[in-house]
Amino acid sequence: xxxxxxxxxxxxxxxxxxxxxxxxxxxxxxxxxxxxxxxxxxxxxxxxxxxxxxxxxxxxxxxxxxxxxxxxxxxxxxxxxxxxxxxxxxxxxxxxxxxxxxxxxxxxxxxxxxxxxxxxxxxxxxxxxxxxxxxxxxxxxxxxxxxxxxxxxxxxxxxxxxxxxxxxxxxxxxxxxxxxxxxxxxxxxxxxxxxxxxxxxxxxxxxxxxxxxxxxxxxxxxxxxxxxxxxxxxxxxxxxxxxxxxxxxxxxxxxxxxxxxxxxxx
Length: 266
Ligand SMILES: [Zn+2]
Ligand SMILES: [Zn+2]
Prior knowledge:
single chain; alpha/beta; 28% helix
């Protein structure tokens, strides 16, 4: 059976600072989007750094957004068809510290990790890592460090693996970075992703989902037995407009079936 669009596990609310806190990005409007799309599960994944428990020497503005902040979104509206879950979008600093501690694993229903946030010099990437080769090496090192962690992978997702941020402030594009990583290296990585049982996010634009170089790592992930979830990464209501087209395009491009679905909620 073809992969059904019944969830969005990467949604930001008005609490996320990077979109300017649009008040209309509230749970009522997010629920309306979910119901319009026929979705059953929605995860709010606001940006997050567990500053109480995870020390980073780096300065970044996410440090202010810990658990007590993201849970301000509660209580969620209840609905017979559509269930909200409290998640977060966690970061990794340039010393490979993960911004979420064991103490919070039980409290968070879903954790996406954005190893691909390489847009902050001095925080997630050193100033010198500007060549395509250096950036590709750093990126995969971060991804392997995530796998080396003790995270509860059955409810962890690898956020926007191919997004443009992997090439932020770099001499090339995200496609150049991806092209630099061999099939063999992707195979080693995604075999381990499948083994630990972490989900792989599908988040691409329509154009990206029609680009073979962007699709290559996901094709390899599928061969390795990885499971996939959909994540819009919407920060504002307008960003929900093309989500259906984006999801359909990538599902078709990868010929995904229900057997390929990541199911953190049973
Ligand atoms: Zn992100
Ligand atoms: Zn996000």
